Amino acid sequence: MKKLNLMKVVLMTALSFLLYNCESNSEEVIEVDPVTSVEEARMCLFEMKNSNDDKSRGVSTPSLHWKNGQTITVSFLNGSANYQARAKEYASEWEKYANIKFKWVSSNSSADIRIRFNKAGGHWSRLGTQSKGGGQSMNLGYEDDGSSDRGFRSTTIHEFGHALGLSHEHQNPVAGIKWNKPAVYKYFAGAPNYWDKQKVDHNLFRRLDKNTTNYSEYDPKSIMHYSVRNAHTLDNFSVGNNNKLSVIDKEYIAEVYPKADTTPPTGDICDGVAPYKGRSFPYSVGDKVTSQGTLYQRTSSGWINLGACGASTPADICDGVAAYNGNSSYSVGDKVTSQGTLYQRASNGWNNLGACGN
Question: Are 48 and 65 in contact, with CB atoms under 8 Å apart?
Fold first, then answer.
């Protein structure tokens, strides 16, 4: 997790609370083929953007995120001890970077995520907290019957990414994949998918709307990206079978579920902050300065007053900050809390300032 300091505020993921209007039914992300996986259900997606360095931070649905720091219970509805142990091992990759824990419970216990191994059922998962509510919520299309399990690791990590609320990277508005559409239509019209043109358009070629999402550069190394055959593109572009978390996957999930910042609080909010140098100095959004005994922070429209120098930094960054209210109107610089995290309004969305409690 990126740490805050008084020299510079690292502007993290711009988080918008304005999402598409989605159907109320539970949504499943279905991977029909582990090599050329595709999305079956319509999803309400949201692209996160890092407003500081414009590096990709993945795709997810904030309304379906679990509570930060939550222990998520998981059960297997079937499967051999061997396959269950391997699924646990691969799923735990997310725990290394996200502030969540998976607790594995027995099949007859109540669980947030319920997994079945069914070779005929393909690979799919419900999205985020839609996993809750009873019944199977994830399928791993493998059975311990002596057959090949190529892709087990990548499939398991990928599906648990969906279970944490993450969506598919190929739907990034700026992915720019130059699809060879006739070849793709022909391929998916055959076994095992038998898809018509409309379904291929919906599952493969559909991308997020630039006008209704925040987005950033595209990450073909993401575990959440489908593999892409070079025969299915016009410029010989391809994406292999990603079987581990990319650098961006790790950074992004740490921003969605931030771990506690162990940096000790400072005694003065102005400690280490330079005085204001005048209008000619090239300040950027997020920069802090002191002027006449007061701390200020730069926004896209001017400077906001953060308080008088000499005041102690709160033990909890969320102290005194109200919870987000969807019916309220917010201005640049306003702060809110949501699901245990502090956010500040920017001109293009919300900046994640870290987990409450710091």
Answer: no
Residue spans in the chain of domains classed CATH 3.40.390.10: 28-256
- Decide: 127 and 121 in contact? Cβ < 8 Å: no
More confident residue, 252 or 36: 252
Q: Which of 214, 203, 210 is nearest to 179 (CA)?
A: 203
DSSP letter at 121? G
Token pair 């990709």: residue = 56
The pLDDT tens digits for 132-158 are 988 999 999 998 887 777 789 999 999
Q: Distance between CA atoms of 91 and 87, rounded to whole angstroms?
A: 6
For residue 216, the model assigns a pLDDT of 56
What homologous superfamily is domain 28-256 in, according to CATH?
Collagenase (Catalytic Domain) (3.40.390.10)
- Whether residue 288 contacts residue 6, with contact meaning beta carbons closer than 8 Å, is answered with yes
Contact status, residue 166 vs residue 225, Cβ threshold 8 Å: no
Token pair, residue 248, equals 């961006």
Angle between helices 81-91 and 152-163 (to 10 degrees): 60
CA distance 136 to 126: 9
pTM: 0.60
Other Cβ atoms within 10 Å of 323 Cβ, number: 9
Task: Quote the tokens at residue 294.
Answer: 């007061």
Per-residue pLDDT tens digits for 219-234: 889 898 888 899 999 9
The whole-angstrom separation of Cα 89 and Cα 230 is 32
Residue 70: predicted pLDDT = 94
Q: Is 280 within 8 Å of 20 (Cβ atoms)?
A: no
CB 17 within 8 A of CB 326: yes
